[in-house]
Amino acid sequence: MALYGVLAVVESGGGLYTTPSKLEPFIDDGRLVTISIDLTEDSPAVVGLDQDVLREEDVPKLGYSHKSSGRGAKYSLTQIGSKNGNDAEGVSSTILGRIRSWTEQDSVQSLTGENGHPDGWLIETLAEVFEKDSKTLEALEENIIDLLPADESLPYVMTIRLKLDSRDVESANATNQQWFYPAEIGVLEEAMKRYATANAADKNIDKGSSEGQGVGVVTGEEGRVVGTPESPLGVFSVKHPDAQPGLLQTESWRHYPVSDDVAMLFAKGQDLIERCVYRNGGMETYALPYFAGEMTGEKAHALYLAIASVDADREVDESADPPMSQVTFHLTENEDEAIRELAEQELRFYTVSMPISDDKNVVAEEPAASIYWPNVLSEAFRETVEGPTLDLSKGGFQAFDKWPLLTLDGTDTMQKRRLAFMRITNHEFTDAVFAYRDDEEGDDFRRIVDHRLLSGTPINVKVLFEEYLQRYADAAEDGELPPHQIVVQQLVHLETLSRAGLLEGIDTPIEPTETMTSEPIDTSDIAAIREQRLEAFLERPLFDETTRKAAALAGVLVGQISWHQDSVRGVGRPLDAGTKGDQLTKHGLENALTTALEKAKVYAQDSDRSFDRDLLFPETVDQLLEETEALPTEWDIDKRELQFCYVLGHAHGRRSMPVAFEMYDGDETESPEAATVESTAN
User: Fold this and answer.
1) Which UniProt keywords apply (predicted)?
2) Model pTM score
């Protein structure tokens, strides 16, 4: 947070407290109104009121410090009006009123008195000159109206010029001059700093303040520290004492000691930090980029440009492009080879997720996430989407638009990898397959998983199966079967994690092997298409284990018979309507499987199509009988593992005939149109 404050200060061209860049809209087009006050006599006297065009050379001596939030007086004695302009009345009442208000601020007045600054008397004198309803102030108001054009609105800056005997002022920057502007008097600069950092000591504290002598957590130096600085993340705040049991607000400086300068850096860096947050689903995830190792000018410049380039509203393929993705590719695809190398070697992200609410508890945190694991995941994701899983000719499923894990549009590998990286960092990779959660539960668990993946921590397969089946249940509406794309996305998700080495708790890889056989499918024969696609679907290590394969084959057969009942026989309640995958038990599967085997024989007798023969879907029945002689109630398999293998097989089975018809290029009598005629006849 302090680093981002430094970047913001450097970019603005100003100091830590002064913000001269904020006066740029006033230069040449605006006017500088100067109130001259003589403090060399027994009593202060306003001896001049002048106005002139504001020039660039005037800015350094004004010591202007901008207060970005809220209206009212700015931090410095120099004050401004609207950059769109004020008339004479507005200058007389509003801008002059801000100078009066500045002299009354408690933080400014803290420099007066016995324990104050040696030159605190200057502040007391200014407060006297600008005292509310005083004759001096009333005279100034009238003189301003007389001096400025009444019917013309101009941008105005107002400042004070003091005539001093430098021998009487310890904090005067020079000894050979009579007239001093705010930036040339130390006590006025110190007052400006006190005003600017006042909230860092008393924010959200009704009585008293939090300040003391200690070692700053950022600087490591001993000195004045405060305990309630402006925190861009909102985590370190006395606003939420319920999250910090036993915290005494006025003693918070002991727990979180920050120097005045660092407190100011926190506030300065807020705009940059805001660029690095991604919000969705009731959660906000900060991904703050930085470079490992010693900070250099080259690193700082590259980091600032990368953060500044982030567009919070940027979308790709109708998906949000989160800051982590934009920063990563800004640096790793930079035109400068040195920047690209730096990014590959040293780019890190501090990531933290919190609820979007007053409850600022940290849900998940990773202080040093590198781009290694997101890159590994995105490449594994790309390989999965382009592999046999979504290749119909290899027993896979179809790619579908609008389903984030089923398509990666792009003209080359790099574009697809970038889109995959984006899907991972904008939470789609997790949200697309995990269970929905209500408002009270929030997305805490999903974000914890995201953080684990970004740091390279494997996920247990039992957790995934539980989430997958819950999401499957969520997607079922009014008793209807969930879209099969839900299951396909989950398979892509599972294979991606397996490819990336981020899956544990299972004894085999999930993804198909690179050496899997894939003979050209005979598209002139419906039965051959089904049989060859089924063999390719099962040719993956997940199904090397007999029970998993049997569970998948059971799902395939129930899906095939149910499709036949729906599309050919017009059965109102097909078999799978009463065999919900997320509620499946071994006993229920045994009943469904027994019914499916019976129907396969009975329905074949009513069909005269060549591919039905004496048994519907014989390729599935034969494989099932070959794999196991035991009934499902005797299978040794975890419930969720059984259910997932079943719904995966069911998704294939339900699409077995429709895909075969899509791929078929033989006789018209075997076409889908023929199936419609037969359905009508039956």
Assistant:
1) Plasmid
2) 0.85
